[in-house]
Amino acid sequence: MKRFLAATTILATLCAPAIAEIKIGATLAITGPASFLGDPEAKSLKMVVDQVNKAGGINGEMIKLIIYDDGANPNKARTFAIRLIEEDEVVAVVGASTSGTTMALIPLFEEAEIPFVSLGGAIAIIDPVKSYVFKTPHTDRMACSKIFEDIAARGMKKVGMISGTGGFGASMRKQCLEIATATGIEVVADETYGPKDADMTPQLTNIRNAEGIQAIINPGFGQGPAVVTRNYAQLGIELPFYQSHGVASNSYIELAGKASEGVRLPATALLIPDLMAADDPQKEVVLNYISSYTEMTGEPVSTFGGYAYDGLRLVLEAIRAKGSSKPKDIRDGLEEIQGFAGVTGVFNFSATDHLGLDLSAFRMLEIRDGGWTPAK
User: Fold this and answer.
1) What are the sequence ranges of the domains in the chain?
2) pLDDT tier at 323 (50, 70, 90 boundaries)?
């Protein structure tokens, strides 16, 4: 009898229908020089999946998250992307962490027709529009527009630039040069630095000595901008100093130290939650993300984790709305999303806009007393 019952139990287990699951992939720079991007991104993705699965999944299906650590290496990222497509059979991908790795992956996901929501900043990711590629961070061109808008409002006409030569810095430099021309502001000095450079005082000295210079802009991300900021202070330069949204996190302040005082940059509302208006459509989302993330990790949130948080939530919203987890349906569902409040901004996608954000999603912030405050 016991054998019969045991056999019956085994048979029932084998015959029980498998729990439906939706496989979503990610390849991120969890370790390496861009870990300040990938680490909070990975933690944010895991947090969303845990929350959604505990609440019953999406349309009755559980989410299975498959994450690989590419260390911001484009070749590794390509290997993992192929694995996600061919072996893991994911229906959508969130990541990569950087513009460089993203650009290496776009042809793969376009050919496989799998929705790819990038966390990179370069405008080339979504302009021109690709059928299956979306992104959540503001573009480098938008950041330049916000910076030059502020410079013009302060009555300045001549600026200097010192840009990183990596994918993001090079792209933003190009965009800023175009924006400067369009706004009638002259770039009187244009310097660059490599990702491994440890001293940018020669370039900054050239910029400081440029005739009529009134402000300095530093397109870049990672540790480079912190080095530039410290060198800027060491040289005693007192010109207004602008950074990009590529360093919009507390880690930049920690790396740059007191030298960061007075620096301005465009960023998201995530950095100033207590200063948001009560009727701001992002406020509830921002506060929920902050409380959930800090409770789960014991760490402060970062802008970059917010990009991933929005990216996965947008994919899940598309699945929920279409009632389908087929890649083509997810892609179509993303294009139909309107008025979706994220921590990065309010997203309004379309067939011709795979970013869905405008300049209102940016806040011009200034570092004062080691913290963030709206620029005045």
Assistant:
1) 21-138+282-359, 141-273+362-374
2) very high
Name which CATH class applies to 141-273+362-374.
Answer: alpha beta
CA–chain centroid gap for 214, Å, is 30
Question: What residue has token string 């620096």?
Answer: 263
Tokens of 172: 């933003």
Selected from 3.40.50.150, 3.40.50.2300, 3.40.190.10, 3.40.1010.10, the CATH number assigned to the domain covering 21-138+282-359 reads: 3.40.50.2300
Distance CA(355)–CA(82), nearest Å, equals 24
Q: What is the pLDDT of residue 17?
A: 45
Q: Are 331 and 298 spatial neighbours (Cβ–Cβ below 8 Å)? A: no
Task: Give phi and psi for 247, each to the nearest 5.
Answer: -125, 25
Assess whether pLDDT exceeds 60 at residue 63: yes
* Backbone conformation region of residue 122, classed left if phi is above 0, alpha if psi is from -120 to 50, else beta: beta
Q: Is 128 exposed, middle or buried (0-12, 13-18, 19+ CB in 10 A)?
A: exposed
- What confidence score (pLDDT) does residue 273 get? 95
**Tokens at 104, concatenated:** 């290496």
Per-residue pLDDT tens over the stretch 267-312 = 999 999 999 999 999 999 999 999 999 999 999 999 999 999 999 9
Sign of the Cα torsion 176, 171, 307, 32 reads negative
On whether the CB atoms of residues 200 and 228 are closer than 8 A, the answer is: yes
Instruction: Tell me the whole-structure pTM to 2 decimals.
Output: 0.89
Residue 113 in contact with residue 44, Cβ under 8 Å?
Answer: no
| Number of Cβ atoms within 10 Å of the Cβ of 364 | 17
Q: Is the pLDDT of residue 55 over 60?
A: yes
